Amino acid sequence: MSVPWWRFNKPPSKSNPSTTDPTITYILDRFTQGEISHLRRGQESVIKFFWEFYNCLAMQRSRIMSDLKLALASNCEAFEFTHWVRLVDFRYATHPLSAVGSIKTTQGGRFNIGSIDETRFPRFASLYIAENFETAYREKFGVYSPIGGRQQGLAPHELALSSDASWSLVKLRGRVEQVLNINKASSLSKFVKQIRGFKIPGRVKSMAADIGLGTPAIVKDRKLLQSTLMEPLWRAYPMHVDIPSNPQIFGQIAHAAGIEAIRYTSVKSGSEECLAVFPDNFQNSSSFIELEGPIHDAVRCQRLDSSNWPSCVQMIN
Length: 317
Prior knowledge:
The protein has helices at about 35-40, 45-65, 65-75, 100-105, 135-140, 155-160, 190-195, 200-210, 220-230, 235-240, 245-255, and strands spanning about 75-90, 125-130, 165-180, 260-265, 275, 290, 305. It is an alpha+beta fold. Strands 1, 2, 3, 4, 5, 6 and 7 form a 7-stranded mixed β-sheet that branches.
């Protein structure tokens, strides 16, 4: 795992000598216009660097993949919940337990890979749910819900760059047997021990310096790993350089390890929790998620378990 590029140590410059301080990091929304122009002019070099950077770490991960999967799987625990919430666009209201939406877009979801390039990065689906309505709303739209007060300025869907189409809310209960809780630093300690020794080749460091991105860094402690997994700008990698982000790579390893869900704290709320559930890992499990309360007859797949998980990852017509 690596530190996101906008958090690389920024090389010093005459106009900004304070960047010699190693604690100064590169924040994406603080790029100057000149830096943006520079990156545009060197687009091919930038993309080449990120692929080199990704490939050198992917090779090192592949050599110890069995150990990485075991490091995560050995820290799982069962998790039971009631009255949790999922929001879906209204056109999918009859398929509220479908995880198809997580693989239809290029960026995918925080812990799953979407349609970047299936030949290089096979897609896998994740069902995202939250412990209450407000958290689910913020995760979907990135802002507070307008309920309880009059919305001022841009509407939530406008801020989220989404349509103002109706959406549907469902309440859920369930029990998932193999859950990795990344809120616990102890759940990540074995994993960090495996990756902290990764090396960045000199040629990759030189490429980063040539395009002005500073010094690439490796995740070497649990706190930094948690920070990169909950990075607010995780979509930048899949959207701009066609490479999975850190949490997506982490999710890929967890998914391959047979882990059924990742439990994490919502970036948008800062305290409430969410689950990223991998339905296809339910196939040999007693885990289940089901709808609570009265259910309309038109709703399909009212319960997700080992008997019907394929229906929740197949495409919706």
